[in-house]
Amino acid sequence: MKHPIPTRIYITQEEMPEYWYDLRAEMKEKPDPILHPGTLQPVMAADMEPVFCKESVKQELDSTTRLVPIPEGILDFYRAYRPSALIRAFYLEKELGTPAEIYYKFEGINTSGSHKLNSAGPQAFYAKEEGLECLSTETGAGQWGTAMAMACGFFGLGLTVYMVKVSSEQKPYRKAVMETYGAKVIPSPSNTTEAGQKILKENPDTGGSLGCAISEAVETAVKTSKCRYVLGSVLDHVLLHQSVIGMEARTALDKYGIKPDIIIGCAGGGSNFGGLIAPFMGEKIAEKSSTRFIAVEPASCPSFTRGRYVYDFGDTAKMTPLMRMQTLGNGFIPSSSHAGGLRYHGMSPVLSKLYHDGYLEARSETQTGIFDAAVRFMKSEGILPAPESSHAIKAAIDEALECKRSGEKKVILFCLSGTGYFDLSAYMSYNAKTLTDEIPTDEELEQGFASIPDIPQNR
Amino acid sequence: MKHPIPTRIYITQEEMPEYWYDLRAEMKEKPDPILHPGTLQPVMAADMEPVFCKESVKQELDSTTRLVPIPEGILDFYRAYRPSALIRAFYLEKELGTPAEIYYKFEGINTSGSHKLNSAGPQAFYAKEEGLECLSTETGAGQWGTAMAMACGFFGLGLTVYMVKVSSEQKPYRKAVMETYGAKVIPSPSNTTEAGQKILKENPDTGGSLGCAISEAVETAVKTSKCRYVLGSVLDHVLLHQSVIGMEARTALDKYGIKPDIIIGCAGGGSNFGGLIAPFMGEKIAEKSSTRFIAVEPASCPSFTRGRYVYDFGDTAKMTPLMRMQTLGNGFIPSSSHAGGLRYHGMSPVLSKLYHDGYLEARSETQTGIFDAAVRFMKSEGILPAPESSHAIKAAIDEALECKRSGEKKVILFCLSGTGYFDLSAYMSYNAKTLTDEIPTDEELEQGFASIPDIPQNR
After folding, report:
1. Tens of pLDDT along B319-328?
2. Given the DSSP bridges, would you call strands A8-9 and A86-88 parallel, antiparallel or unpaired?
3. What does the pLDDT read at residue B1?
4. Closest Cα of chain B to A428: distance in Å?
5. Between chains, do A76 and B180 touch, taking CB under 8 Å as contact?
6. Residue A258 — φ and ψ, nearest 5°?
7. What is the residue extent of each domain of chain B?
8. How confident is the model over B406-437, as pLDDT tens digits?
């Protein structure tokens, strides 16, 4: 049958948003300020500029402007792969037999395979404008590293990527793509930095962690001339760039007068979820909607559902400023059996604050459960999802099945943040039924919490 | 700068074509008929129906209807991933410094990663309508097998895929995807068929070939109850289904009043190129345009540029009917160093006839040359192309550079038939500079030609 609305709702390039949406400007209570780890006072731009690009620091520290104009050079970059499609999941709905309407914003149609390009482009653009020559960063599953490699290739910048060792072993092809774009890829922990050497000395067999790769990348940035560090999640300026997802989604939904009842996203550091919800959460805060928001995280790295809302370092070597966020402790390292990304110990301070204040819900899922959902989705919708994104799929399916039970015709929107072309070894394990679910024990979590700094704000 | 037209030109789902375009209906001289190998008389439907679905046979043998209505069940399948984007290559144009306008139709946005789904869907749909329970097929690089696995999953049919052994070794993840969709994947030649056993006996170390995998798949189809064989290229009904590419492309171009001067596609069996050119070639035959058409093939399997226009079998075991086509001989096996697909000994009879009659040009390219073009493309356009599709990219770049020399502002359209996510091992070889170019010697070609049947029409 012919559907009343298209399966794929594209906005035109003329309709693409020319503004990012800064959710902080709408928040009644702001996230707590980032603190200097020495003075425990709010950081100033001068504290952060040795590490980050100036414009990123400015965006990080200025939370007053709700609609931030996107520079033309970045719009030009976005036009290389955007707008992304908003897809009505008619085939999945039919398979589930649900009265719910399911929509997903598909951010995987670019070679990085994910939404990460939405912030990689701006950060490379600003670095180039500032006269920098190279950047350094870390990557877990590889989506962010690939996106940065593409963006640095596009704007003509050098790039060093510290890739979490266990991921680099699971995903040799990720490395190939980054190198094809001209990036230098180093498995982390490595001997190229003091932070890496220290970690290797303490734990020679470690598979690495994002927190540890961040330490190495930051150290490299501050020690290299005309080089800065870039981060693909967690920070407020990253969520600002990712709001292009939500702005496009809202434009597409508005065309058909659709109002989502439930908005879902996977959450590791929070970038795709924070980006998707930005304008919709703004409406909720302004009491113009009663939309529910659900963040979905892996049971193996549950910073929302089992973490603490305290000040913590962003990295293992305790080099970054302190952020108040949901955290498992900077020393927490998820089980190496965990297949996908979403393995960061902390969470976006903005999302953490919203969670703390009751604006959003969170749940955790096991990886066998999310692969069940992934395969169900790929068979009906024809798209191979990333394991990360499949956390959102799992929750969307569960909510749609709840509608089937209750008979309610809710509108569900989720972010399909990436594709799984680089995750086939995990799918092979799933097919072979060798994937396991390792959920940290309370004792393991306590070990992670022990790494949280003991400062007055945390008591 | 803001571009005068969008980078991505999407037609809406309401604008999607509801007809396929049968180029044969426009041709002044038709392709020669398919012959029964025993009688050497034109085949009848009854000869083909033990092997193929009835509707495919009907479409294969009826060439009189220019616009063939697409059944609603297939339109519904198409709406799961179509329309595909027509992209203006502004970034590549800028990098080349060419006055040419380059457009490409991007068929890789689905999990099969290629245009192959455009015929896999219809063939599975017709099989289901006919009451069949399973299908068998072959795959080389894996695009067709993946597409059939998706289509059979969608319509609820069993599927056995014979995968050319050398490809199955190069691409373990292809197998994983097909299996996740429920297909049975067997490296070919195998011991599961008489054809495979015979080939293994003669040449135990062979890496296989498409011709040989076809023999195994056909044998399996005819020996299995309620099972038929499906083919992803070469045959007229496949090109008919693929004309959805050209029909969509023309709709999108017409929106902006754009007329292509040069249309380019890679050609192995001819499915994406034949599909793209269909309506445009119809106009040329009707003398309403003077568009140039360029088919690009690998130098390691040059059926257009070094083949013969004679009757030949479609498979190595000489089980299929005879088709008059550009062929290297059914016994020709391309070098195993050849990384991508496009390794079939023959070529679409329709395209072969058009080539023979001077309506289209052909050229061959070495794989190191096409990977150079692929990397240049992916760095500027941000899409990781399949090696197959990169043949078209190479020719598009060469034509655009020719425009730069001559100062002409030509409009170039090519088909980006697929993505390269399953070809990363070839990219790794390219990065490591270990890719080689093996071009068959005249003696090697003569060995292939010796397998062409010695029948009156070939003298």
Report:
1. 899 999 999 9
2. antiparallel
3. 47
4. 6
5. no
6. -95, 130
7. 8-16+70-113+236-458, 21-65+115-229
8. 999 999 999 999 999 999 989 999 999 999 89
In A335-383 the beta strands, taken as DSSP E runs, fall at: 361-365
- Does A378 sit within 8 Å of B2, measured CB to CB? no
pTM: 0.94
Give the phi and the psi of residue B83 in degrees, each rounded to 5.
-70, 155
| CA distance readout (Å), B53 to B66, B126, B162 | 21, 7, 19
Chain A environment of B379 (Cβ under 8 Å): 153-154, 181-182
What is the reported pLDDT for B317?
A: 87
Dihedral angle sign, alpha carbons of residues A183, B110, B376, B167: positive
Closest by CA to B182, choosing from A420, A397, A93, A375, is: A375
- Give the pLDDT confidence of A259-306 residue by residue, as tens digits: 999 999 999 999 999 999 999 999 999 999 999 999 999 999 999 999
* Any B CB within 8 A of A150 CB: yes
Residues in B closer than 8 angstroms to A78, CB to CB, are none
pLDDT per residue over A94-107, tens digit each?
A: 999 999 999 999 99
Supply the mean pLDDT for chain A. 94
Task: Name the CATH architecture for the domain at A8-16+70-113+236-458.
Answer: 3-Layer(aba) Sandwich (3.40)
B376 touches A: beta carbon within 8 Å: no
Whether residue A276 contacts residue A245, with contact meaning beta carbons closer than 8 Å, is answered with yes
Nearest CA in chain B to A381: B80
Q: Does A1 contact B72 at a Cβ distance shorter than 8 Å? A: yes
**Domains B8-16+70-113+236-458 and B21-65+115-229 alike in fold:** yes
Which of A415, A409, A410, A411 is CA-nearest to residue A391?
A415
Of residues A176, A181, A383, nearest to B111 (C-beta): A383
Within an 8 Å CB–CB cutoff, is residue B13 touching chain A? Answer: yes
pLDDT over 90 percentage in chain B: 86
CATH number attached to the domain at A21-65+115-229? 3.40.50.1100
